[in-house]
């Protein structure tokens, strides 16, 4: 899960031999010219030694990718697992996989905004507002639950679009727009809830079922893992074939197989742990499906590349003919949509919408999840998987400290320290890349 910045790979010989010009034109070099050779082809020709050398080069130049957060998860699990065996039990890990979904959904929207180098301070209030809209429409007014759900999610998209308009068209800084939105949407939520203040959501409601439904059959978890691995392998092979046809560097089959084996090991290990308790939670399945779809949008579509372009160099994006206002408005609309979906899952978790929905430390947690997961605060670098990794780190810290009986005050301090460490790593990484001429 590397941080793809949307840049096109330099072309090279499709056969991976280093012959020809390597410029992707198929033309022979001029007499006396030195053929261009893509360094990645040399790495692959050297085998394990080449990959180790490339890994060391990336570490020295600050291209850390997801390594820091993966190491953080390993350390956190090792520490809490050694202090209390309950932490690594199948039940706790299964509960953790459900608990991170609401926060993770909202963090995905934050990732999109951070890729532009901006921030959205309103997602907490938007999530609470949309949960309140569903509860009032469905529970208090008897509207069809599916229609109420669609209206609530559409409400999040509209809210994001409004904020994006003021930012992209009017020119108000995103920080100010979303800070004002944080207050305004919270006020609107209180108005929607009315004098009752709290609307309880029945356990048989679609919102409650989205969170509480668990597929107990072992085939569900293992089948999902198998489908995921198969899709990853097929996508990797198709991408290699497409790159080869376009005469640009592509991953050899051996490397694709190795990556697939690693993914398969993680996927089936997760399925095994889930099956040791109750099975596959529907909430986790929906979260993973959304991550795959949005990852495809970011890394495999023209729109996704435009987001990276605007976040990496806004003036360059304008000169390339990209509609910067459209990209900005659409990204904030996506953030509002994901905030609505996340708010729905959080409401399903506690089976209510109240005046405290979307409040507390939710905003800080979702921003921290995106940043800790590896999305740069400076824009242009990150993936939607950052939300999953970051939410897993924060959720693991909170789960472990709850098991240990640590107070909320200490939990806040530790989470804040982890967030600061993530930003420091990001800043040092950018400095190293600039020094190496790669940023």
TrEMBL record:
InterPro entries given in the database record: ABC_transp_permease
Highest taxon of source: Bacteria
Sequence ranges of Gly residues compositional bias: 16-25
Main subcellular localisation: membrane
Cell location: Cell membrane
Known function: Part of the binding-protein-dependent transport system for D-xylose. Probably responsible for the translocation of the substrate across the membrane.
Protein name per Swiss-Prot or TrEMBL: Xylose transport system permease protein XylH
């Amino acid at each position: 899960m590397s941080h793809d910045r949307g840049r096109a790979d330099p072309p090279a010989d499709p056969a991976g031999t280093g012959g020809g010009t390597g410029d992707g034109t198929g033309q022979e070099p001029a007499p006396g010219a030195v053929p261009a050779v893509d360094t990645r082809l040399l790495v692959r020709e050297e085998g394990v030694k080449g990959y180790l050398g490339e890994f060391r080069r990336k570490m020295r130049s600050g291209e850390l990718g997801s390594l820091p957060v993966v190491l953080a998860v390993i350390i956190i699990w090792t520490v809490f697992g050694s202090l209390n065996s309950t932490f690594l039990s199948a039940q706790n890990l299964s509960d953790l996989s459900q608990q991170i979904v609401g926060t993770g959904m909202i963090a995905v929207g934050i990732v999109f905004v951070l890729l532009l180098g901006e921030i959205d301070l309103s997602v907490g209030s938007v999530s609470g507002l949309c949960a309140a809209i569903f509860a009032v429409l469905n529970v208090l007014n008897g509207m069809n639950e599916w229609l109420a759900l669609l209206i609530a999610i559409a409400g999040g998209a509209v809210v994001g679009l409004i904020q994006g308009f003021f930012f992209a068209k009017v020119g108000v800084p995103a920080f100010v727009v979303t800070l004002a939105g944080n207050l305004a949407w919270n006020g609107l939520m209180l108005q929607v809830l009315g004098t009752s203040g709290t609307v309880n959501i029945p356990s048989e409601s679609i919102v409650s079922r989205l969170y509480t439904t668990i597929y107990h059959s072992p085939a569900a978890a293992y089948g999902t893992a198998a489908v995921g691995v198969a899709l990853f392998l097929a996508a990797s092979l198709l991408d290699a074939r497409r790159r080869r046809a376009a005469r640009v560097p592509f991953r050899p089959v051996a490397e694709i197989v190795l990556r697939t084996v690693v993914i398969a090991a993680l996927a089936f290990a997760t399925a095994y742990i889930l099956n040791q308790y109750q099975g596959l939670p529907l909430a986790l399945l929906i979260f993973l499906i959304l991550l795959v779809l949005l990852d495809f949008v970011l890394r495999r579509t023209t729109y996704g590349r435009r987001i990276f372009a605007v976040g990496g160099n806004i003036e360059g994006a304008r000169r390339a003919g990209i509609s910067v206002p459209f990209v900005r408005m659409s990204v904030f609309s996506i953030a509002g949509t994901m905030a609505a979906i996340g708010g729905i899952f959080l409401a399903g978790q506690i089976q209510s919408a109240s005046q405290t929905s979307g409040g507390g430390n939710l905003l800080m947690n979702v921003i921290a999840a995106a940043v800790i997961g590896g999305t740069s605060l400076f824009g242009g670098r990150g993936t939607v998987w950052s939300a999953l990794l970051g939410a897993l780190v924060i959720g693991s810290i909170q789960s472990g400290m709850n098991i240990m009986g640590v107070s909320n005050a200490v939990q806040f301090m530790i989470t804040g320290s982890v967030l600061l460490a993530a930003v420091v790593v990001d800043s040092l990484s950018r400095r190293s890349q600039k020094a190496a001429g790669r940023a």
